[in-house]
Design a protein that fits this description.
By secondary structure, the chain is mainly alpha-helical. The chain is built from 16 helices and no strands. It has a single domain, classed as Na+/H+ antiporter like fold. The longest helix is centred in the C-terminal third of the chain and has 28 residues. The protein is globular, with a radius of gyration of 18 Å.
């Protein structure tokens, strides 16, 4: 019963924030431009600061787990290759296929992992924060490959490296690691009172923006595509990857991190990526909205099950 309560407490705030955003939009208190600006702030300010603070505070030397890092990296790459081959065999539209591939593969790990793991284990995050530096470069590289290959463009190494290095989430991961490993101490008044409070706004603001963007009338135009993405992203991937992690002996906070990396909704910046890379932005936006909404249920089920089985 305790695991069910903890699971509910971990995921219910996500639903609450999204429903609040939807209500604010319906009441005319949060328009499309404001929601868009809020999403940009999350991606470029709040979330990067959240990553910096989390990695800065992580006990990397003690908590670092090579086996876990390799497992996440290898499974992330393998899942991308399988998803890409499967989608390309069925979807021929060059603006839709990469959006679906990204939707199935690019998880909202950076935004959800730390708050959900914290709900269970408090400050004992294990490798949760450090995995940001593993997951972020891989998923962003995979997204670039999906879009470039779909439109027949060449994927040059220098172009790829530039896109990776200039990504705010990758940069923040590098800064957090540098501060942590160098031993440099940032004054508490800066890290806790300023960075910490701005970082805490990442998840609420992102979920408010998502809720404000819900367009249930538009969803009916993409039922087939959305169903496929939801099935793979929220059910199949975690149903395969999490049991493999259990077999490898991964438990507790690290196992929740694996669940969030494999079974969390599509990343909130998937929409902006699709727009900038020539993908179908309407489908990309609906994928983020639908997977975010349904993930409240799927994550609750997975977390409750893992807790009941004694793996958390």
């Amino acid at each position: 019963m305790n695991s069910i309560v903890l699971s509910f407490n971990a995921v219910f705030p996500l639903l609450g924030f999204m429903l609040t955003g939807y209500a604010l939009r319906r009441l005319g208190l949060l328009d499309e431009n404001t929601a868009s600006g809020l999403s940009k702030l999350v991606f470029k300010v709040f979330l990067p600061l959240n990553i910096v603070q989390s990695i800065y505070n992580a006990d990397i030397r003690t908590a670092f787990d090579v086996k876990l890092a390799l497992f996440v990296a290898v499974s992330c790459i393998c899942s991308f290759l399988i998803i890409s081959a499967s989608v390309k065999a069925r979807i021929k539209e060059p603006t839709i296929a990469p959006v679906m591939i990204q939707g199935m593969h690019k998880a909202n790990y950076n935004l959800l992992a730390i708050p959900i793991v914290s709900s269970f284990f408090g400050s004992e995050l294990g490798m949760t924060a450090v995995l940001v530096a593993v997951v972020t470069p891989i998923v962003n590289t995979c997204s670039t490959i999906a879009f470039e290959s779909a439109r027949g463009g060449s994927i040059g190494l220098s172009k790829m490296l530039k896109k990776i290095v200039t990504n705010p989430l990758v940069l923040s991961s590098i800064i957090g690691l540098a501060l942590n490993l160098s031993g440099l101490k940032v004054p508490a008044v800066v890290m806790n009172s300023v960075v910490g409070k701005l970082a805490a706004m990442a998840t609420p603001c992102a979920m408010l923006g998502l809720g404000a963007g819900f367009n249930f009338a538009e969803m009916k135009n993409w039922v087939r595509h959305l169903s496929a993405v939801v099935l793979v992203k929220l059910i199949i991937l975690p149903s395969v990857i999490v049991p493999l992690a259990v077999l490898l002996g991964i438990r507790g906070a690290n196992l929740i991190a694996v669940l969030i990396y494999s079974g969390s909704p599509s990343a909130v910046n998937s929409y902006s990526t699709a727009v900038s890379m020539g993908g179908n932005e309407k489908l990309a936006g609906e994928i983020v909205a639908v997977t975010s909404l349904l993930s409240v249920l799927t994550l609750f089920i997975f977390l409750s099950t893992l807790g009941t089985l004694g793996y958390l």
